[in-house]
Amino acid sequence: MTPTSRTTTRPPGSHDAVIVVPGIMGSELVDVTTGKTLWGLADANWYVSAWMTGQGLRNLRVTDPETERRRVRATRLLRFPAFMPVLTGMEPYTRLMERIAQVVRHPAALRPFPYDWRLPVAHNAALLARAIEAHLTAWRWRAESRGPGGSRARVVLVTHSMGGLLVQEMAQVPGALDEVRSIVTLGTPFLGSLDAVRMLSEGVGSPFPLPRRRLQALARTLPSVYELLPAYRCVQDKGVLRHVTAGDLGIGRDSVPPDRATAHTLPLPGHRCLVGLGQPTFQSMSLRSGDIEVHHGIPDEHSTAGTSLLDHSGDGTVYRYSAELRQAERTYVHQSHGALARCKEAMDHVCAVISEDEQGAPLGGGELGLEVPDVVQAGEPFTITVTGSQAAGASCYVVDLSTGGVKESPVLRHGDAAEEGKRAGELFLTQPGLYRVAVAGGGGSPVTRLLLAAAP
Question: Is the pTM of this model over 0.90?
């Protein structure tokens, strides 16, 4: 009797472990004592109440980081859209997690890393380092963690926004990233963002002073916001560019973090940098009679005063060259900052890196930009502007996030000959609430942004 041979096959999918690190606003926060959710609520109307009345914002303030580490716990990644003026909105990570689950060998290989995004980057980076070690150790105990030829599993880090700064902080510790095979950063502000200036400063006005003042009061207590201040020369001052100072913002002298140029040059293992493009993005600032004026462009550093600004665009929050590292493999997608981790092109890219399929779906899609106010008044008209090479065939719609239904479909007007590649439409929302504005066209994912309609 001839013995039968037995063959074993391993399940498909990457044998490596994957950790997803969200961005600012991207983790649900819960009060440990009361069990009350402080951030990431399912009710979209909570954000209207919070920013118009201040109710609920006080619990998010950081008076003492050590106390906050005991008082507040980050429980999971964002599951519902969240909103903050200036930074506008952050989309949930549910779709990204579901897509990654399809390319790993077993659900146990995938771990989310929620963290208290209000606290210093260094604190959260230390927690991430421990999470990487624990997750990889646990995954290696499983038979599925062996790859071709018996190779041991390593880690792929998928990071969005501030999550990439945690990894950059870890890179300064010898050996901290030795077990990391690849890092994907989605819209990480390696050199900061002008939106942090707008959040912290006294001299950037807003047609809606109540949300603006409440944002500033909250932001000035959050250590993480100061770490998002621009680390590149962005201040136009007497014909030259210089770094932003505490005096420019009316904040304490020690509030501006030291120059991050050294950290910016440290290579990250297997780094793939995904950068959002085509969205109106503030890139430089100037001071006039103590007021700050921000600009959708930056002068050439070798130009003279009065030279027109060069608009390099970005994702609406992070300037293009702030989201890039020279040592990284760079790819681009036309999408807003808060929606980067949710759009199909970015998710395809992430999954291609995890599965080591370097021929993943090309990025880019429709070349569209979307500009909308962050806060509008219900019942009052406002303008939606669509830009880019695909603007002529673009369509726009608005989703009410409290119901999930399409609320409006504004008609976009064609611009005149001097405004080729630009269309605009007027819209008013009758009810206060949180809304997603989307513009579609050109074959790519719709470009989306969140806005808040305040009560009259």
Answer: yes
